[in-house]
TrEMBL record:
Catalytic residues (UniProt): 136 (pros-phosphohistidine intermediate)
Reaction(s) this enzyme catalyzes, per UniProt: a 2'-deoxyribonucleoside 5'-diphosphate + ATP = a 2'-deoxyribonucleoside 5'-triphosphate + ADP; a ribonucleoside 5'-diphosphate + ATP = a ribonucleoside 5'-triphosphate + ADP
Cofactor(s) the protein needs: Mg(2+)
Protein residues bound to ATP: 20, 68, 106, 112, 123, 133
Entry keywords, A to Z: ATP-binding, Kinase, Nucleotide-binding, Transferase
EC number of this enzyme: 2.7.4.6
Family note: Belongs to the NDK family.
Coiled coil: none
Residues in Nucleoside diphosphate kinase-like domain copies: 12-159
Gene Ontology molecular function: any one: nucleoside diphosphate kinase activity
Name used for this protein in its record: Nucleoside diphosphate kinase
Amino acid sequence: VQRCRIVAAAEVEQSYIMIKPDGVQRGLVGEIISRFEKKGFLLKGLKLFQCSKDLAQEHYKDLKDKPFFPTLIDYITSGPVVCMIQIFVILSCKAWEGVGVVASARKLIGATNPLQAEPGTIRGDLAVQTGRNVVHGSDSPDNGKREIALWFKEGELCEWESVQTPWLIE
Ligand code: GDP
Ligand code: MG
């Protein structure tokens, strides 16, 4: 039985989530992935990856004029990251399709500055400083697409069905 196949350009909203090098070094990979699993997102891609400076600069190109940009690039390239694609289960139900995985993931992640992030969020519970805020999440559906295309190659994505679906969606 073929359980995994290459996915063509899906029109479903997708978020690019990344555990940053501090999250990997601090042993938080399982904890962070677990939060998205428990929420009910569907994992569509996952890998441990050492990124180049070029890729980090492209990923954060909107921030290139910020004073912290060089330290941000050093941080993101300082060790392996865990790259993920998270989606909501695709159903024919229009209301569910309209729910944004991008915005929902940002809520789970919390504010950029962990001191301002609410308890219960990943950054609120697990981090203390903006420059070491353990996780990235796309800030718009368009950036989700852009980032997934940057960080994943065709053939690294899986389309699969979760047995949880009927227990998540009425
Ligand atoms: P995010 O979308 O919440 O991750 O925040 P941004 O897109 O504004 O910034 C991207 C990343 O750059 C943040 O997650 C931080 O790791 C880093 N960053 C943002 N602002 C600062 C800052 O003022 N100082 C430092 N050192 N890093 C920052
Ligand atoms: Mg951002």
